[in-house]
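so my prof wants the structure for this chain in the tokens format not the other one, which i didnt know existed until like an hour ago. anyway here's the sequence
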Amino acid sequence: MDTVKQGDPEVAAAAPTPRRSLKLPAHFASRYAIIGVWIAMVAIYTAKEGRLFFSWGIFHTIFSQQESLVFMTMALLCTICVGEFVDLSVPAVFGFSATILPVLTVFHGWNVWLAALVAVLGGVAAGAINAYFVVKIGVNTIVVTLGMSTLLEGLSLWISSDNTISGLPAGFQKFATANVFGLPIAFYYGVVLVLGFAYMLAFTPLGRHMRFVGASREVSRLSGVRVNRIRFGSFVFAGLLAGLGAVITVAHVGSYTASTTDTNLLPVFASVFLGTAVIETGRFNAIGTWIAIYFLQTGITGLQLLNGAVWIAPVFYGAVLVVAVTVSTVLHRRSS
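here's what i got, hopefully its the right format
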């Protein structure tokens, strides 16, 4: 009886090609398709607008003014990753903290750094209240966060008298506006946050437990994971990130208008859900969300240059949100 030698060329030729190798190109395309679309978008806008679009001014506009969205999306990821999919209060928590800082500094003469600390603590307190009602009492997340959002927006309008408050000390603003390689340092704060968040989710026990809780609370509980502690902490940390982002944004811009808080809701959700189609397809992830933020801003900036209409941003964000949720749902079904 003939024996088959390992490494026989005839056997190697007859062996079927591993299925995994056939899937690699498709898998790569699914993870990075948006980056390809982003490049194509830039090429189209450049062809239409020429130097007006492909210039340092436009690049600076796209990448220097989104730190608020970066912090808010990371705050939303805190709760989404543990299965709390609809935290509608993140923009309102951000707006509340962003209102506290200039109100205490300009209206009441507080030391700006002490006011900044109070603003961050305000965000943490809002997150803790959300956590108490959702985790401890068991109230529906949508109901709690919608109510908190409305409450905080009302308080922000009240304490600011619905005015734009400016006049922060120039020294305070420098920690967010200092120029680093042509971009404000606030941009790099966002990069550090995103990389840190991505590392935490991928390589730490806390990140794995958050993913585990998001996938199945009951299985996580039976495995010894402290589910409610992680859920509670996710809301609190979301409030902390929203508060920190508010302080950095106010320092960067130099003012805040409480009535603009509502405009952040669509961009935040559109970016987070679109991020599930990048890097880790079908999963909420920090780096994919970061890419989605600037992808969307590129699209809006180009369309505004072509048309200039004020309705472009809400229409674009709304359409992308619907598409992103659909793509996320399809990818999740395929991966499960």
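also thought this was worth mentioning. Residues 19-49 form the longest helix (31 residues).
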